[in-house]
Amino acid sequence: MADALKLPANATIDETAALAAQLPAQVRGGSGVLRVDASAVTASDSSTIALLLEARRQAEAAGRGFEVAGAPAKLVDLARLYGVDALLSLVPSPDASPASSS
Questions:
Q1: Mean residue pLDDT across the chain
Q2: Domain interval for residue 27
Q3: What is the DSSP track for 6-72?
Q4: Fewer C-beta neighbours within 10 Å, C or N terminus of the chain?
Q5: What is the CATH number of the domain that holds 19?
Q6: Domain for residue 85, yes or no?
Q7: Number of domains into which the chain is organized
Q8: Is residue 28 assigned to a domain?
Q9: Residue 6: is its pLDDT beyond 70?
Q10: In what order do the strands lie in the sheet with 34-37?
């Protein structure tokens, strides 16, 4: 899908600055829902959440919808911990299951 921002496997502070720089062009370059593909993410941190919140803000400012598709369980759990899971419109990956407490 041409209107998707694909997150890398390592979607941590080392990568999110470059992704944030791509957001304005990504938002201007499309219409409808801005979709973030998180299916490849294996490592995330608070900067990932900040990036997703900024992407949502820019999409809404441009009159676009926003969703995060293929979110791995750890990303969903992190968003839930920060209380922003509903804001981010997270669509868990099919194999994402709630993290177990072991």
A1: 88
A2: 4-92
A3: EPPSEESHHHHHHHHHHHHHHHHT--S-EEEE-TT-SEE-HHHHHHHHHHHHHHHHTT--EEEEEE-
A4: C
A5: 3.30.750.24
A6: yes
A7: 1
A8: yes
A9: yes
A10: 4-6, 34-37, 66-71, 90-92
